[in-house]
Write a structure and sequence with these properties.
The protein has ten helices and three strands; from the N terminus they run ααααααααββααβ. It has 334 residues and is mainly α. The chain folds into two domains: 223 residues, Alpha-lytic protease prodomain-like; 77 residues, Cation efflux protein, cytoplasmic domain (Alpha-Beta Plaits, 2-Layer Sandwich). The protein has a three-stranded mixed beta sheet with strand order 1-2-3. β1 and β2 form a beta hairpin. The longest helix is centred in the N-terminal third of the chain and has 35 residues. It is elongated and about 90 Å long. 45% of the residues are buried.
Length: 334
């Protein structure tokens, strides 16, 4: 067996496409963070003025979202560092770690506290004051949340078109958690704002405080569901999830196309960061080539590796050539 393993040099610059994607993610996070901070302040003032449990739940929700954008911002910045001796595959997975912390923030600060506040309002209900102030704040918040939502959706749609996927598939399979997190956060925020608005209007019309409780608990349950989805996605990426089937199919077509390739024994591609793949391929060359000079095999493997690294999303690659006898112990490395 002749084995040739070829790794990427650590000093290879990050492709322009990946830098542009990081800039888009950073912009999405900054827009969302700015909107959530302004909304949290407005909601907090309205909650103090009205005594509404639903409005307080929405305030907690926006505070949690603002903190989450800070975590996502840290993740985007720290993941931009290139490979070094300590992290030979780079720091791309930093973004997955900080996105996981953001999901925990949504779960604890957003979901659980909203449910607790809703249940507290049942035990110690407070009179509703200045409801129209709260309604005005909620309508304004919907507008700003809509702007943030549109920014995240635009980035996801552009990524989906570039990868020839549906929007839902891109949301489900994306290796960049930042726009997905912002999109799902903002979707939950818009639904929560609508629930809080309905609760306030019903409270005004009926005089029953139970509507606030129902809305607050519903908002909390919604946030728990969103947090669970985001945490599961971040966990999968942290555990070196394989590239999606459509990506693997294209990679297989690339590595099996040269006429010197007899069989692709193994093909693995895992995410080491947003749109950053580590590709490991094991190939059995045609028998005639294995009987020739080893230098020719090395040249063919080198050319294939360079072809793989030409893809902007493949940042690391290793090609191993094996003989047709899997038990042959002879080995040479380049």
């Amino acid at each position: 067996m002749v084995a040739v393993a070829i790794e990427r040099r650590a000093d290879r610059p990050q492709p322009l496409e990946l830098r542009d994607q990081a800039s888009e993610s950073l912009r999405t996070v900054l827009v969302a963070g700015s909107a959530n901070l302004a909304i949290a302040v407005a909601k907090g003032v309205a909650a103090l003025m009205t005594g509404s449990a639903a409005m307080l739940a929405e305030t907690v929700h926006s505070v949690a979202d603002t903190g989450n954008e800070v975590l996502l911002f840290i993740g985007v910045r720290r993941s931009a560092r290139g490979p070094d001796e300590k992290q030979p595959f780079g720091y791309g997975q930093e973004r997955y770690f900080w996105a996981f912390l953001a999901a925990l923030g949504i779960f604890v600060v957003g979901g659980l506290l909203s449910i607790v506040e809703g249940l507290r309002s049942v035990l110690r209900p407070e009179p509703l004051e200045s409801p129209w102030v709260a309604i005005a704040v909620l309508v304004t918040a919907m507008f700003f949340e809509g702007l943030s939502f549109r920014t995240a959706r635009r980035q996801l749609r552009a990524s989906a078109r570039a990868r020839r996927r549906s929007f839902v598939d891109q949301l489900r399979l994306s290796s960049d958690p930042s726009p997905s997190t912002v999109y799902l956060e903002d979707s939950a925020a818009l639904i929560g704002l609508f629930l809080a608005l309905v609760a306030l209007v019903l409270h005004v019309l009926t005089g029953w405080a139970i509507w606030d409780t129902i809305a607050s608990v519903a908002i909390g349950l919604l946030l728990l569901a969103v947090a669970w989805v985001l945490a599961q996605r971040s966990k999968a990426l942290l555990l070196n999830e394989s590239a999606p089937p459509d990506v693997l199919d294209r990679l297989h077509a690339t590595v099996s196309s040269p006429d010197w390739v007899a069989e692709v024994r193994a093909l693995n591609a895992v995410f080491v960061g947003p749109s950053q793949l580590l590709v490991l391929v094991t190939i059995a060359p045609v028998p005639a080539l294995t009987r020739g000079a080893a230098s020719e095999l090395i040249d063919q493997a080198t050319a294939l590796r360079q072809k793989l690294l030409a893809y902007p999303t493949i940042t690391h690659a290793a090609v191993t050539l094996v003989g047709h006898d899997r038990h042959d112990g002879e080995r040479a490395s380049a």
